[in-house]
Amino acid sequence: MQNQKYIIRTHQLGDMGWITYRHALTVAKEFDWGEAFEAVVGDVTAQFIKTYDPKNERCFIAEKNGEMIGCVFLVNAGEGAAKLRLLFVEPQARGMGLATRLVEEAVDFARDAGYEKILLWTMKILDSARHIYKKVGFKVIDEEINQEFGEKLVSETWLLSIDDNEETSPPVKS
């Protein structure tokens, strides 16, 4: 990639298809999760468009030289909670601090929108993403064996309290 700095923008027409496509060709392929994972991503992106509330939800897209290189979603999970979803950075754009920046943008948006906490659900095998979540201040609050993508995996629910008085909260499934 050229040296132009990346930008962060909100979603536009066509982005949800790219997000599903790139998750399938990178994450699903890398971990051999196949069509089950692609279907979950497709469901998340479709639901986002169907129920999008711009005051309380956001899809952050990173672009460099006019090409999409990353994304993350923040959606309303109800009861004062937001949910972080589908963090992704293209392989050639990794190592630039982009994933951390995307998560920080989502946390800032959640704070401004008045959320008390942010939850996320991930797989324990996703070490790079887990490192970022921990660095930003998320903590694991639940673990379980999950076979959703065709193999035994450990899924985790993480929490970031925006209200400093709240330590933990019950997990919310994706």
TrEMBL record:
It comes from the Bacteria. Residues 19-165 form the N-acetyltransferase domain. InterPro entries: Acyl_CoA_acyltransferase, GNAT_dom, NAT_camello-type. SUPFAM superfamilies: Acyl-CoA N-acyltransferases (Nat) (SSF55729). GO terms for molecular function: N-acetyltransferase activity. Gene3D superfamilies: 3.40.630.30. Keywords: Transferase. The keyword Transferase applies. Pfam families: Acetyltransf_1. This is GNAT family N-acetyltransferase. The lineage of its organism: Bacteria, Bacillati, Bacillota, Bacilli, Lactobacillales.
